[in-house]
Design goal:
Order of helices and strands: HHHEHEHE
Structural class: alpha/beta
Oligomer: single chain
Strand content: 5-15%
CATH topology: Oxidized Rhodanese, domain 1
Largest sheet: 3 strands, parallel
CATH architecture: 3-Layer(aba) Sandwich
Low-confidence stretches: 1-25
Helix content: 25-40%
Strand order of the largest sheet: 2-1-3
Number of helices: 5
Shape: globular
Number of strands: 3
Mean pLDDT: 78
Length: 122
């Protein structure tokens, strides 16, 4: 059985988006290639720091979701980011109240790009 669309999108949380650096690294971190392969298998893709900057500059309609805990979000987050914390167990099943909140954050536009990020320990 295919997982609900919200869980497919949540799969993006398994791959960490490296956006904490002030400038894009000259080369990708060592984990990048493996993460790209996993992302491709799961049906989503990674976004580099420079690609994210370009998306911000383009004024494209996109949603950015910060999946970190509240205290980390309050300490600082990307512009326009909406916070909803995800735990590792959420990968397999979201509680109904979290499913409802995630659906309301995603909204009705199924064509909009969705960027999900969390803490990167690279």
């Amino acid at each position: 059985m295919k997982p609900p669309k919200s869980l497919e999108l949540f799969g993006a949380l398994i791959i960490l988006l490296g956006i904490g650096a002030a400038s894009a690294p000259a080369e990708n971190p060592v984990w990048w290639e493996r993460a790209e392969n996993i992302a491709r298998q799961e049906g989503y893709r990674l976004v580099s720091t420079e690609q994210l900057r370009s998306l911000y500059r383009s004024n494209t309609n996109f949603l950015i979701v910060d999946a970190r805990p509240d205290y980390q979000y309050r300490a600082g987050h990307l512009p326009r980011a909406v916070q909803i914390e995800f735990d590792p167990g959420d990968r397999h099943r979201l509680k109904p109240e979290k499913q409802d909140r995630f659906r309301s954050i995603l909204g009705p536009d199924k064509q909009r790009k969705i960027i999900i990020y969390c803490q990167n320990y690279d």
